[in-house]
Amino acid sequence: MSDVALGLASITKRFGRTAALQSASLSARRGTVHALLGENGAGKTTLMRIAFGMLRPDAGTIRVNGDIKSFASPSEAIANGIAMVHQHFTLVPAMTVTENVALGGRGLFRPRQARSDLLALARRTDFAIDPDARVQDLPAGAQQRVEILKALSHEPRVLILDEPTAILTPMEAQELLNRARELVNGGGTAILITHKLRDALQFADDITVLRRGATVWTGRANEATEDALVSAMLGSEHAPTESPGNKVSPRDRTAGGETVMALRDVSVRDTLGVDRLKAVSMEVRGGEIVGVAAVEGNGQHELLRVLAGRIAATSGMVELPSSVGFIPEDRQRDALIPGLSLRDNVALAGAGTRRGMMDWTPIGGRTRALLENYDVRARHENVHASTLSGGNQQKLVVGREIEWSHAALVAENPSRGLDIQASAAVKDRIIDARNSGAAVVIYSSDLDEITSLADRVVVVFAGKVTECVNDYESIGRAMLGATMK
Amino acid sequence: MTSGIEAFLEGVVRTATPLALAALGETVTERSGIINIGLEGSIIAGALGAVVGASHGGVWAGFIFGAICGLTVAAIFALVAVVLRADQIITGTAVTLLALGGTGTLYQLIYGSAGAALNTPTLNTTAIPFLSQIPIVGSALFAQPSITYVLYALIPAVSWWMYRTHAGLALRSMGENPAAAIAAGVRGKRVQFAAVLFGGALGGVSGATLVLAQAGTFVEGMSAGRGFIAIAIVVLGRWNPLGTVFAALIFGAASALQFYFQAIGTDLPYQLFLAFPYVLTLVALAATRGRVSAPAALGRQDLEVE
Amino acid sequence: MNQITAFIVDMLVHATPLIIAGLAVAIAFRAGIWNIGADGQFIAGATAAAWVGVSASAAIGWLALPLALVGGAIAGGIWAALAAWLRSRFGVLEVISTIMLNFIATYGASYLVRGPLQEPTHVFPQTSSIIGGAHMPILIGGTRLHWGFILALLLATVTWWVMKYSAIGFRIRASGMSPFAARSAGLINVPRVTSGAFIASGAIAGVAGAVEVCGVTFALYENISPGYGYTAIAVALLAGLNPLGVIGTGILFGALETAAGTMQRNAGIPATTASVIEAIVILAVIGIAQVRSRRSVSAT
């Protein structure tokens, strides 16, 4: 039997004319944690989806324990001992934990039997879980545990974890990676997809680096240096010692500007009657970036939207400038209309209050200027927004919102899903807006992004907002509601 | 007035039977995340199929051929809406139009424009011993055409299948979160296709019931919006087989009132009674505040993972 | 008049209600509203126009015509507003509610022409004829072609212009394509915009009904609409929801219905075949669009 539990050789995958993977390879040895490292868009998830039977490769071979396999669907991969924990939860919110774990089986579904099987598995693996809870009622960390139990319930020999630490607090992430290590010690194999050097170096035995769909580096973690991995991830043309994503222009905090946005005792109750924000007071001054940190579902979603004037407060006082730029997390859904042209998408800002006619000629001119000034790569302003890459779409949104309101900007995970260059460009633009006097609020689920960008940090926990020292450790503790040291 | 009430209740169950059959099928379809507005088309196709089948092979051949016709219409819907993932509402509307027009055309081609006096065998009522003797409700529930008893058997069978098999679990997960279901190994499109076909077949049986247990003949457009009413019934029944049947009984009662009032003689215009079920549908939908407990992914066109 | 001219006239007469109702559907669909109720709104509009046309005094002369058309628009708008209200207030799917309202309108008209609005002899299920002042003037002498056709062309042009160049039109398109982005990025009051478009759609369908009464039937009959509202869906979709395109597809389906009528009389081919063809057109249009968009998605 081969020493390699999962071997992917020369995998090529094209989507239309775009090659997502070009002869990518990976060999995960039995009894190891293998990190698959690469920046966003490098093809990490695509490669693992092929290994899991969700996509079919155009060329290349998949070997499981040395035998060549071809999977037509995830169910076939599961039958071959492969399981995958996806980056975005693939749970059914309205169903119970038991039902979610049982999903994908055959024949009769015996709820009681399934429940006791799950409890046995949870005891064996030390993942505490309530089998009867509905997934929608569980916090993110518990949902992650359900995902993992679901994967483990098939008793996999290869466990693929796709960016497992992305939405967890630092402590939850630590716990999860420790569990993965325990599984590996039992003779299994874990593959950890990540874009974080720190995770790869800290937890993996082996590392494979993907860049633009090709394997560019592979080896033992203890033989890897941070520099070598960074230049492998970014290509030789940029081999900076500091990661460009963290480049911050010098802070210019002479005097805080005037208060631009202010909340006094603001509460927000959602349609289900749950209080998402509880008597929150905060202000944001011109020329500062306020970073917002929170674990998913603590009210930061509502806080950002109140600050952006996108939802009304249930009670309390809200003072905002006449227009606030807003960069929502889900740009495909909330910021852009993919089926409309770039010009139409630029016209969208302020469309709600426009009267009379659309001045298409000047709007077209403004759009062209915006494409130029914000480095949006598009053939012209009349192509559909859907034809742009994610990075260019985001640059368009950022440009539109900053141009629409020079006074205030609210951004929610503005660099999610972007490659390093686009991400840096977006952050630079946000910093420029701050430097020219705008009041900026930025939320990110990536703590590094907050610590590097923010002049001031607030943490949202259980609907309350507290000021926090701007360092990784303190923010991490505050996000869990721990008392400040 | 005991006999009057018994007759009324018997009418309630009789008119509710085809509605419940269609709604039961649509419940399964909708739990898979697909809303099939083309159900009306399956019902009318089932009605014509029943006439053709019954005239060649008797009543039960009529039901079987009716089911096949309903299933065929649903297959057209599934091809466009499930496989190609076109908009479900438009596809359903077109399929209804297709079936209403197609059955009209075929009927005239087969039986001539006069429609000819049809000699369609019909299903007699079968009284179940003892049970049908229960006062007031006995004859209403247990002295019905045997297709009603088929419905009685289908309700627990569908419930059991939906909640006690992995296939049922897969079906429900597709209606809630298709991406999750597919990632867990569920064959998404296959499940939805099958759910649409099942709904279409029951729609066909529903149409066959109109012909073989009620009208005794085919009339163009005789489905008269029952497919749409059945979709409203699914909402009222909260996407659950047993709830669906109770909701169907309410609509049966609305229709049966018409015969009841005609029997006792009233000056109210008959159009009022004809329009009553449709008005009731609107009121009932408003009362349940629309799609509160609808499957989360119902009607969604995209299927993220292939 | 030769046969070809006769056919063209008939085709345009048939096309008139289809173009107007097709515009109604196009506006609603553009706003993301599945208004399957153009048929009911058409009947409501026809009923109101007939009521105005019958009860108007001859003394008001030609004023009766615009009054009848406005009456049709108001009635159609109200009929759609019911569904719009049920949607915004109670979350009732407009697909279901508009279909229900179609049936209710059909039975309502049936009641009126056999009850309060029946012609004085109480023999036929129809209203009396509308007064001369409510008649649509004839466009080409000696034919049935009336000014309603010109009105249809005008409505199509105005609708096209509004959708393309006005802020309201832009709000409708944005709300229909992405209610989330319209609300979040455009700060558009999406429920108000879509409800407004829904009611406008109903009003236009009501005008279609009024034009049919004032230009063709001159009275309200039981089956005033042979499913115009459903054909209008095919008309609008085949035109790609483009108001100017609706003119072309409306004429095409007018030709189809005319031909179907002729074939029914001459060759015994059932007229219902026309709706089969309409349905196939709809399925083909959306099916092909879907296949195309998948190709373009996989190409990017």
Topology of this protein?
The complex is a heterotrimer of chains A (485), B (306) and C (300).
Chain A: E1 4-15, E2 18-29, E3 33-37, H1 44-51, E4 59-64, E5 67-69, H2 74-79, E6 82-85, H3 97-102, H4 111-125, H5 140-152, E7 158-162, H6 170-185, E8 189-194, H7 197-203, E9 206-211, E10 214-220, H8 226-234, E11 259-269, E12 275-285, E13 289-293, H9 300-307, E14 315-319, E15 325-327, H10 331-335, H11 342-348, H12 360-373, H13 390-404, E16 408-412, H14 420-435, E17 439-443, H15 447-453, E18 456-461, E19 464-468, H16 472-479
Parallel strand pairs in A: 3-8, 3-9, 6-7, 7-8, 13-17, 13-18, 15-16, 16-17
Antiparallel strand pairs in A: 1-2, 1-4, 4-5, 9-10, 11-12, 11-14, 18-19
Helix pairs in contact in A: 11-12, 13-14
Chain B: H1 2-31, H2 39-57, H3 59-83, H4 88-111, E1 125-127, H5 137-142, E2 143-145, H6 146-164, H7 166-176, H8 178-183, H9 188-215, H10 226-236, H11 241-264, H12 270-287
Antiparallel strand pairs in B: 1-2
Helix pairs in contact in B: 1-6, 1-9, 1-10, 1-11, 2-3, 2-4, 2-9, 2-10, 3-4, 3-9, 6-7, 7-9, 10-11, 10-12, 11-12
Chain C: H1 3-30, H2 38-55, H3 64-90, H4 94-114, H5 148-165, H6 167-177, H7 179-184, H8 190-217, H9 228-238, H10 243-267, H11 273-299
Helix pairs in contact in C: 1-5, 1-8, 1-9, 1-10, 2-3, 2-4, 2-8, 2-9, 3-4, 3-8, 5-6, 5-10, 6-8, 9-10, 9-11
Give me the Rg of chain B, rounded: 19 Å
Mean pLDDT of chain B: 87
The SSE order of chain C reads HHHHHHHHHHH
Proportion of residues in extended strands of chain B: under 5%
Gross morphology of chain B is globular
Write down the oligomeric state.
Answer: heterotrimer
Largest interface: B-C, 46 and 44 residues
Largest sheet of chain C: none
Question: How would you describe this structure to a colleague?
Answer:
The complex is a heterotrimer of chains A (485), B (306) and C (300). Helix content of chain A is 33%, strand content 25%. Chain A has helices at residues 44-51, 74-79, 97-102, 111-125, 140-152, 170-185, 197-203, 226-234, 300-307, 331-335, 342-348, 360-373, 390-404, 420-435, 447-453, 472-479, and strands at 4-15, 18-29, 33-37, 59-64, 67-69, 82-85, 158-162, 189-194, 206-211, 214-220, 259-269, 275-285, 289-293, 315-319, 325-327, 408-412, 439-443, 456-461, 464-468. In chain A, strands 6-7-8-3-9-10 form a six-stranded mixed beta sheet, sandwiched between helices. In chain A, strands 15-16-17-13-18-19 form a six-stranded mixed beta sheet, with helices on both faces. Residues 238-250 of chain A have low confidence and may be disordered. Chain B has helices at residues 2-31, 39-57, 59-83, 88-111, 137-142, 146-164, 166-176, 178-183, 188-215, 226-236, 241-264, 270-287; strands at 125-127, 143-145. Chain B has a two-stranded antiparallel sheet with strand order 1-2. Chain B starts with a helix and ends in a 19-residue tail after the last helix. The mean pLDDT of chain B is 87. The model of chain C has no long low-confidence stretch (mean pLDDT 92). Chain B binds chain C through residues 37, 76, 80, 84-87, 89-91, 93-95, 97-98, 100-102, 104-105, 108-109, 113, 220, 224-225, 228, 231-232, 235, 269, 271-272, 274-275, 278-279, 281-282, 285-287, 289-292, and chain C through 34, 36, 86, 89-93, 95-97, 99-101, 103-104, 107-108, 110-111, 114-115, 230, 233-234, 237, 268-270, 272-276, 278-280, 282-283, 286-287, 289-291.
